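This is your field. Please look over both lines of this record.
***
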Amino acid sequence: MKRANTIAGEIQDFIRRERIAPGGRLPTEHALARRFRVSRSRVREALQALRARGLVDSKPRVGIRVLPFDPTAQLDSMMACIRTDDERRELYEFRRLIEPEILRLVAERAEPWELSKLESMLEKPLPKGPEGVREGFARDVAFHEALWTLAGNRFVAGLRGLLVRYFAGVERAQKVTESEVRRTNGQHRSILRALRAGHLERARRELARNLDTFRPAGRAAK
């Protein structure tokens, strides 16, 4: 008997072969069951798996629709799979490799007013004490997510949850000092100043230094 995941894969192949565009409708559960020679309950399980992946949706009197591709939905689902210290360190190494390169796209595509708006968020002095740490974390997430959005690439933006919000959660679980969050706020401003002045390599160096602030301890196993 076919497994639900196998049927889900066959439905995806059917969508590609038939070139069903986002918003287009799939055949009914009954028709899909006949096509793939399985029970309707098995088709229903396969569709549930596809819904969980953000690939289809179904509503009464509307039917089963193909959803637009959303990299964020796919990549966010990976967050729950990261559990070990080695996995966290390897993910950090991945982020350390690609985020400075993302600045190249930001330098090419971001409008001056967009960089100015982001810089204005960082100019307000941070409060003192625990409130300042909380505000510093919030700014850190907002800053990096904004950079990844300004890159103007759906796949880059889709990685925000995996590489920005995930590490924000890791950092909150650590004992981060007030001086560290203040230092990161200053580093963010230096990155933006370098970008606005057209000094991409300097901005990349500043960003690499910024990412080192919360580097996970140790090295990933080879």
Observations:
- The longest helix spans residues 85-109.
- The two ends are 40 Å apart (CA to CA).
- The first strand starts at residue 56 and ends at 59.
